[in-house]
């Protein structure tokens, strides 16, 4: 793996909720220096989005595996581990009062995240969405920006004023600090429900530094505005940037390769939610994930046979794999469900509604590949 914006995160139980952090692999300055000026910047800053629960993890697991499936929304959206202290009180589900155990009520009083910048400079803002549940729309008031990286791959520069980021995804934006020297609130608004909004204060050197009552009022006003503001919620309206986000092929990136024109193996991953004995379960290809008694790494090191379907797909190094994800409608509702692939990137060769048809959809994909239509190359 070469340069780019990554992050580490836990995968055991609910630890994913709070064990994460940025992993930044710096560019080789000599190579980077030869790239077009759109990619150049003076300094970088990190915006790590995550969430905070004011309930213990046991009660969350209970909500996830109980008779009525609920993924409680986070009580605060944190930016770089900090919140603004003005989140609404945690929601209480009917009949669930006793499950809501505030673990550390003062956690919402974490200090506001402050990003210090200097005027007339170019910054690389690295947005990382490390939250377990939540797609966000992020904005930097008064500033346009240029997206240059997605998931560790440098894209063609795309100018915009807002960013949609799903769990696991990372973007780098180039922001010029060419506005009045003041405080600007970077906002990350939850797209799917009326969840809390993540805030980070971008503070120009020379702007008032003390956190005062008028600033708190401003936070309050922003929260009120962002909570009531119309946000795009239909997939068609969220596509504003994806079709323009394609790897910059002129940059000679070591991690980027052309979409292969052959497919050696094809896997289907059908996701569905079912109710069994009053409980909700998520199945992949009709099977429930079972944690193996011995980890797969351990099994491999002991040369055990781990190729039992359905949990393991056997592939050979160098093979080209096509994966068809089918997000089935759950109780007639479609919902966003990001996937990420550890250690590998993939070309998004096609997408669409309804079930995949190997003839018509497969034909479209072949045509996309043949014509080398613009495709994203990413890992989430
Ligand atoms: Cu992961």
Descriptive notes:
By secondary structure, the chain is an alpha+beta fold. The chain folds into 2 domains: 4-249, Immunoglobulin-like (Sandwich), CATH 2.60.40; 265-378, no CATH class. The protein has helices spanning 29-32, 57-65, 213-228, 235-238, 296-301, 360-370, and strands at 4-9, 20-25, 43-52, 76-79, 113-117, 122-129, 136-139, 145-150, 153-160, 162-165, 170-176, 183-190, 198-204, 265-276, 279-284, 321-327, 346-347, 377-378. It has a 6-stranded mixed β-sheet with strand order 4-3-6-11-8-9, with no helix packed on it. The protein starts with a strand and ends with a strand. 22% of the residues are buried. Bound molecules: copper (II) ion. The site of copper (II) ion has 4 residues, from loops.
Distance separating the two termini: 15 Å
How does the overall form come out from the CA principal axes? globular
Q: Please count the beta strands (DSSP E, at least 2 residues each).
A: 18
CATH class of the largest domain: Mainly Beta
Contiguous helical run count: 6
Spell out the blueprint of helices and strands.
Elements (H helix, E strand, L loop, with lengths): L3 E6 L10 E6 L3 H4 L10 E10 L4 H9 L10 E4 L33 E5 L4 E8 L6 E4 L5 E6 L2 E8 L1 E4 L4 E7 L6 E8 L7 E7 L8 H16 L6 H4 L26 E12 L2 E6 L11 H6 L19 E7 L18 E2 L12 H11 L6 E2 L2
Parallel strand pairs: 3-6, 5-13, 14-16
Antiparallel strand pairs: 1-2, 3-4, 6-11, 7-10, 7-12, 8-9, 8-11, 12-13, 14-15, 17-18
Copper (II) ion binds next to loops.
């Amino acid at each position: 793996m070469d340069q780019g914006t990554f992050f580490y995160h836990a995968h055991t139980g609910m630890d994913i909720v709070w064990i994460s952090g940025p992993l930044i692999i710096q560019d080789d300055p000599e190579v980077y220096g030869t790239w077009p000026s759109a990619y150049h910047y003076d300094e970088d800053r990190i915006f790590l989005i995550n969430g905070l629960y004011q309930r213990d993890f046991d009660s969350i697991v209970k909500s996830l595996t109980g008779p009525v499936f609920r993924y409680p929304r986070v009580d605060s959206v944190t930016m770089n581990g900090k919140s603004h202290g003005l989140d609404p009180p945690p929601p209480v589900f009917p009949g669930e009062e006793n499950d809501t155990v505030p673990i550390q009520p003062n956690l919402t009083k974490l200090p506001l995240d402050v990003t210090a910048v200097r005027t007339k400079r170019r910054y690389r803002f690295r947005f990382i969405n490390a939250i377990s549940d939540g797609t966000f729309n992020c904005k930097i008031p008064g500033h346009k920006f240029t997206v240059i990286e997605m998931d560790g791959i440098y894209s063609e520069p795309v100018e915009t004023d807002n960013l949609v980021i799903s769990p696991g995804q990372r973007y780098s934006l180039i922001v010029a600090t060419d506005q009045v020297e003041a405080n600007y609130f970077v906002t990350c608004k939850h797209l799917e429900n009326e969840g809390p909004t993540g805030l980070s204060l971008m503070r120009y050197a020379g702007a008032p530094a003390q956190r005062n009552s008028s600033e708190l009022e401003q936070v309050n006003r922003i929260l009120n505005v962002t909570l009531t503001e119309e946000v795009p919620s239909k997939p068609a309206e969220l596509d504003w940037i994806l079709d323009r986000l394609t790897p910059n092929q002129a940059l000679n990136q070591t991690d980027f390769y052309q979409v292969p024109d052959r497919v050696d193996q094809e896997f289907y991953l059908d996701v569905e939610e079912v109710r069994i004995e009053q409980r909700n379960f998520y199945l992949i290809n009709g099977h429930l994930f079972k944690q193996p008694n011995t980890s797969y790494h351990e099994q491999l090191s002991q040369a055990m046979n781990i190729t039992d379907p359905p949990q393991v797909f056997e592939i050979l190094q160098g093979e080209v794999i096509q994966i068809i994800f089918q997000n089935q409608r759950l109780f007639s509702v479609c919902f966003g469900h990001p996937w990420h692939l550890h250690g590998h990137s993939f070309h998004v060769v096609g997408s669409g509604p309804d079930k995949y048809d190997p003839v018509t959809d497969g034909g479209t994909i072949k045509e996309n590949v043949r014509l080398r239509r613009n495709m994203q190359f990413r890992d989430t």
